[in-house]
Amino acid sequence: MIEFAVVGCGHIASKHIQAIQEVPGARLAALCDPDLGQLERAGQGLAVKRFRSMEDMLREAPEIMAVCICTPSGLHAGLAVAAAAAGKHLLIEKPLALTLNAADEVAEAVHRAGVKAAVVHPNRYRPAMMALKTALERGVFGRLSHVNATIRWNRSQQYYDQAAWRGTRLMDGGVLMNQAIHSIDLLQWLFGPVTEVKGLAATRLRSMEAEDVAVAALRFEQGALGVLEAATTIYDHSLEESISVFGERGYAVIGGPVANRIVHWECDSMSAEQQEALKQEINSNPQGAGGHAELIRDMVQAIAEDRPPAITLEDGRRAIKLVLDLLADAEAQRGIYAEMGGTR
Known about the structure:
The chain contains twelve helices and 13 strands. The chain has helices at residues 13-22, 36-42, 54-60, 76-85, 100-113, 127-137, 157-161, 175-178, 181-191, 272-283, 291-305, 313-339; strands at residues 2-7, 26-32, 49-51, 66-69, 89-93, 117-120, 144-152, 194-202, 213-220, 225-231, 240-247, 250-255, 261-267. Helix 1 (13-22) packs across helix 11 (291-305), helix 5 (100-113) packs antiparallel against helix 12 (313-339) and helix 6 packs parallel to helix 9 (181-191).
């Protein structure tokens, strides 16, 4: 039995708690949060130990074997380093860190301690994404011309005003590091490394430090081009999230409000009946077993089998590097535009 602790008891912690309870071989042993109200709400009805600091938890609950880091993003790296130094396996919420240096510090600490560490990118486990991954590996769509990732969501000013750290560069990041990071991970998991990025980013409608909208053109190592559009500025409610791929022998669009349904799937290697059957199979249960449960299950198995987890620290680092490269190019473009006498 792998004893888990959840550190940080905000919104996302509930997914970890539920996943741990669902997975055989996992048990929730402790919760940790400096905010007593959040700690009590998360622990309501649960017979688990509760701590106000991770330092106390690591000292007083030696039975803990794995720690889920669910705090604000700017705290991920420091807590992960400390937990790894204490010999705990790690499941770190996205993003792994907010800088590459911080991500590398986590990797070094994990290597020194000899523990397992995974990054939470649960959208890989959606049945539609798994079907798309399999199709791409089999070359179903042939040579690819281009791909697209779109995140058109609403995050109101009230959302950002809930806590002082939201929307800050030091503790949270903007739409790219917070919301679009899942699609950015999917783009590279599905289509391979990105070798070139041209980006624009701005803070248009929300009162926040980081960006609330960004667009980018990408070039992948295998030659395909890509387009990324990410926004939390959509009026009133979230509209869509999608991943699209276009090739010489077919195309697919995975969409819906959270990119978990097959919207279009056309290829020359499947009959119309086969394509419709695939759509119906996937769309009848678009969430599958749930990404967080699959990540907990994989961590339990990785510990038992002494193997790396499915979603590695390098995967997490690759996603944040693309975000940082995009923002760096956007900043460079802003500087060039200013030199030309433009305003924004």
